[in-house]
Protein backbone atom coordinates (compact mmCIF):
# COMPACT_ATOMS: atom_id res chain seq x y z
CA UNK A 1 0.00 0.00 0.00
CA UNK A 2 1.19 3.53 -0.75
CA UNK A 3 1.89 6.09 1.95
CA UNK A 4 -1.19 7.70 3.51
CA UNK A 5 -2.28 11.05 2.07
CA UNK A 6 -4.77 13.67 3.15
CA UNK A 7 -8.08 14.43 1.45
CA UNK A 8 -6.55 17.74 0.35
CA UNK A 9 -3.82 15.74 -1.46
CA UNK A 10 -6.50 13.72 -3.26
CA UNK A 11 -8.39 16.87 -4.27
CA UNK A 12 -5.31 18.13 -6.11
CA UNK A 13 -5.50 15.22 -8.58
CA UNK A 14 -8.01 16.23 -11.26
CA UNK A 15 -9.58 13.02 -12.61
CA UNK A 16 -12.20 13.55 -15.31
CA UNK A 17 -14.39 11.42 -17.55
CA UNK A 18 -13.81 11.69 -21.28
CA UNK A 19 -14.79 9.90 -24.47
CA UNK A 20 -12.20 8.52 -26.89
CA UNK A 21 -12.87 10.11 -30.27
CA UNK A 22 -9.83 8.77 -32.11
CA UNK A 23 -7.36 5.89 -31.63
CA UNK A 24 -4.24 5.43 -33.76
CA UNK A 25 -1.34 2.98 -33.74
CA UNK A 26 1.84 4.18 -32.01
CA UNK A 27 4.62 2.05 -33.55
CA UNK A 28 7.37 4.44 -32.35
CA UNK A 29 6.61 3.70 -28.66
CA UNK A 30 9.12 1.48 -26.83
CA UNK A 31 6.27 -0.58 -25.34
CA UNK A 32 3.18 -1.48 -27.36
CA UNK A 33 0.83 1.52 -27.14
CA UNK A 34 -1.85 3.54 -28.92
CA UNK A 35 -2.34 7.27 -29.39
CA UNK A 36 -5.72 8.53 -28.19
CA UNK A 37 -7.69 11.73 -28.66
CA UNK A 38 -10.07 12.10 -25.73
CA UNK A 39 -12.92 14.63 -25.49
CA UNK A 40 -13.10 15.98 -21.92
CA UNK A 41 -15.96 18.38 -22.64
CA UNK A 42 -16.08 22.13 -23.31
CA UNK A 43 -14.15 23.24 -20.20
CA UNK A 44 -11.05 21.09 -20.89
CA UNK A 45 -11.42 20.19 -24.56
CA UNK A 46 -9.84 17.41 -26.58
CA UNK A 47 -6.56 16.08 -25.19
CA UNK A 48 -3.95 13.58 -26.43
CA UNK A 49 -2.83 10.52 -24.49
CA UNK A 50 -0.53 7.57 -25.08
CA UNK A 51 -1.77 4.37 -23.45
CA UNK A 52 -0.34 0.85 -23.24
CA UNK A 53 -3.70 -0.81 -23.84
CA UNK A 54 -3.04 -3.04 -26.85
CA UNK A 55 -3.80 -6.43 -25.24
CA UNK A 56 -7.51 -6.04 -24.40
CA UNK A 57 -8.51 -3.36 -26.92
CA UNK A 58 -8.46 -2.78 -30.67
CA UNK A 59 -8.37 0.66 -32.26
CA UNK A 60 -11.95 0.15 -33.42
CA UNK A 61 -13.40 -0.78 -30.03
CA UNK A 62 -11.69 2.14 -28.27
CA UNK A 63 -13.51 4.87 -30.20
CA UNK A 64 -16.65 5.93 -28.32
CA UNK A 65 -15.49 4.37 -25.04
CA UNK A 66 -15.69 6.61 -21.97
CA UNK A 67 -12.53 6.55 -19.83
CA UNK A 68 -11.02 8.30 -16.82
CA UNK A 69 -7.95 10.51 -17.07
CA UNK A 70 -5.79 12.75 -14.92
CA UNK A 71 -5.95 16.12 -16.68
CA UNK A 72 -3.68 18.23 -14.46
CA UNK A 73 -0.33 16.45 -14.86
CA UNK A 74 2.20 18.31 -17.00
CA UNK A 75 2.45 17.01 -20.59
CA UNK A 76 4.91 14.17 -21.10
CA UNK A 77 6.98 13.59 -24.23
CA UNK A 78 6.82 9.93 -25.29
CA UNK A 79 9.07 9.56 -28.31
CA UNK A 80 7.65 11.83 -31.01
CA UNK A 81 4.28 12.15 -29.22
CA UNK A 82 3.30 14.67 -26.52
CA UNK A 83 0.85 13.04 -24.08
CA UNK A 84 -1.32 15.62 -22.32
CA UNK A 85 -3.34 13.41 -19.94
CA UNK A 86 -2.81 10.15 -18.07
CA UNK A 87 -5.45 7.61 -19.08
CA UNK A 88 -6.19 5.46 -16.04
CA UNK A 89 -6.30 1.68 -15.84
CA UNK A 90 -5.45 -1.36 -13.77
CA UNK A 91 -3.06 -4.25 -14.48
CA UNK A 92 -4.75 -7.61 -14.90
CA UNK A 93 -3.16 -10.83 -13.62
CA UNK A 94 -0.79 -10.93 -16.60
CA UNK A 95 0.17 -7.24 -16.33
CA UNK A 96 -1.93 -6.02 -19.28
CA UNK A 97 -3.85 -2.79 -18.73
CA UNK A 98 -7.63 -2.74 -18.30
CA UNK A 99 -9.11 0.75 -18.63
CA UNK A 100 -10.73 2.45 -15.62
CA UNK A 101 -14.21 3.64 -16.57
CA UNK A 102 -17.62 4.54 -15.22
CA UNK A 103 -20.32 1.87 -15.15
CA UNK A 104 -22.86 4.34 -16.60
CA UNK A 105 -22.22 7.27 -18.98
CA UNK A 106 -21.56 10.69 -17.44
CA UNK A 107 -21.04 14.04 -19.18
CA UNK A 108 -17.54 14.46 -20.63
CA UNK A 109 -15.42 16.55 -18.28
CA UNK A 110 -17.25 15.45 -15.13
CA UNK A 111 -14.82 15.37 -12.18
CA UNK A 112 -14.30 12.28 -10.02
CA UNK A 113 -15.65 13.03 -6.56
Automatic annotation (TrEMBL):
Signal peptide: none annotated. CDD domains: tRNA_bind_CsaA. Gene3D superfamilies: Nucleic acid-binding proteins. Keywords: RNA-binding, tRNA-binding. Residues 9-113 form the TRNA-binding domain. One of its GO terms (molecular function) is tRNA binding. This is tRNA-binding protein. It comes from Rhizobium mongolense. The lineage of its organism: Bacteria, Pseudomonadati, Pseudomonadota, Alphaproteobacteria, Hyphomicrobiales.
Amino acid sequence: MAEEITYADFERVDIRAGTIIEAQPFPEARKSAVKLLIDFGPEIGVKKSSAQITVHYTLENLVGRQVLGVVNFPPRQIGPFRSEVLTLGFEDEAGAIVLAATDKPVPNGRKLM
